[in-house]
Amino acid sequence: MDAFTIRVDAATFDAGQEIARLSADPGVGAVVSFVGVVRRHGDGDNVAALELEHYPGMTEKSLAAIVAEARARWPLSAALIHHRVGRMALGEPIVLVVTASAHRAAAFAACEFLMDFLKTQAPFWKKEIDADGHSRWVEAKSSDEGAAGRWQ
Amino acid sequence: MKLNLLYFARLKDAFGRDHETLESDAASVGALLAELRARGGAWADELAEGRVFRVALNQELATVDSGLAAGDEVAIFPPVTGG
């Protein structure tokens, strides 16, 4: 499998298995991972599930561009972005980002960079579904724009 | 010329459709938006000056000045909220 992987999939992921896969290269000395999870308090206070919509085609291109930018900035051995789409219940994982490098500084920085840019650039949209069935589209947060802005 | 329009998330709900093929003479994204606003209702409201939305032209983010050509894919959507 390619060392740099992008997956947009309704299926969930096994973070442990992915971390093991990215750790297998003998040049790798540091692996950093981030998992985003469906939480109860979002824009609403009693979120039971999320519905994730995306723009097929542009999503993959956009994620590939973000990974290319991270590779230009840090000496990465491998990276993975697995972003789920469709319906996810409270507590289920939404997104996994794993970065691998010889040293931790690059792996930490690249993982945070990938998440910050994914949140502001990649065409995904979350709809929160409450326990009573009401739903609302999540509003974009200026704090996310700020987090991406600090890398420029 | 024919344009392939796509709508996502809140805008898809507001417009009651996720895509359409439009016969248009709009030379730019700005001209296309003006044409869509002229439909009134949710179109005028959601695409009003000052409302925040994004336009992608052939799957790359575009501006109001981006030029349009026959067969272009133009997507209009709210700011993204993934991750």
Comma- or semicolon-separated keywords:
heterodimer, A: about 150 residues, Aldehyde Oxidoreductase, domain 3, four-stranded mixed sheet, four-stranded antiparallel sheet, globular, B: about 80 residues, alpha+beta, Mopterin_synth/thiamin_S_b (chain B), nucleotide-binding (chain B)
Structural description of this entry:
The complex is a heterodimer of chains A (152) and B (83). Chain A has one domain (4-149): Alpha-Beta Complex (Aldehyde Oxidoreductase, domain 3), CATH 3.90.1170.40. Chain A contains four helices and eight strands. Chain A has helices spanning 15-23, 58-73, 104-121, 142-149; strands spanning 4-9, 30-37, 47-54, 76-84, 86-89, 93-101, 124-130, 135-137. The N and C termini of chain A lie far apart (31 Å). With 83 residues, chain B is of the alpha+beta class. In chain B, 27% of the residues lie in helices and 27% in strands. Chain B contains three helices and five strands, in the order βαβααβββ. Chain B has a five-stranded mixed sheet. In chain B, a hairpin with a 2-residue loop joins β3 and β4 (60-61). The chains are: A alpha+beta (152), B alpha+beta (83). Chains A and B meet through β3, α3 and β7 of A and α1 of B.
Helix content of chain B: 25-40%
| Biggest chain-to-chain interface with counts | A-B, 28 and 17 residues
Structural class of chain A: alpha+beta
Spatial strand order of the main sheet of chain B: 2-1-5-3-4
Overall body shape of chain B: globular
What is the fold named in CATH at topology level of chain B? Ubiquitin-like (UB roll)
Quote the distance from N terminus to C terminus of chain A: 31 Å
For the CA atoms, what is the radius of gyration of chain B? 12 Å
Strand order of the largest sheet of chain A: 1-4-6-2
